[in-house]
Specification:
This protein has 74 residues and is mainly alpha-helical. The protein has five helices and no strands. Helix 1 crosses helix 3.
Length: 74
C-alpha cells in the first residue's frame, strides 16, 4: 500500500464515521476548529493529518482511534 492509497482509505473511514454521527463536513470542522475545506481534503485523501489531529478527530467522533486507522477488511 502506498501513501496515496493509505490517505484515501483513512479519508473513507473518516467520512463513514462522520456520516454515522449525522454530521456535515462543516459541523465536524467547527467542532475541530478547522476549515470545512480541510475536512473535505482529508476525506478525499488529498491531505495528511497529524497524529494529534487524528486523536482529536476520534474524540470528536466518539470512536476508538483504531477504527479510523483500520485499512483492511480482514
Amino acid at each position: 500500500m502506498n501513501k496515496a492509497q493509505l490517505l484515501k482509505l483513512f479519508g473513507k473511514n473518516v467520512k463513514i464515521e462522520r456520516i454515522k454521527q449525522d454530521l456535515t463536513q462543516e459541523q465536524l470542522a467547527e467542532k475541530m476548529d478547522v476549515s470545512q475545506n480541510y475536512i473535505a481534503c482529508i476525506e478525499s485523501g488529498r491531505q495528511n493529518m497529524s497524529l494529534g489531529k487524528i486523536l482529536e478527530l476520534s474524540e470528536v467522533l466518539g470512536v476508538d482511534i483504531e477504527k479510523l486507522l483500520k485499512f483492511s477488511n480482514t
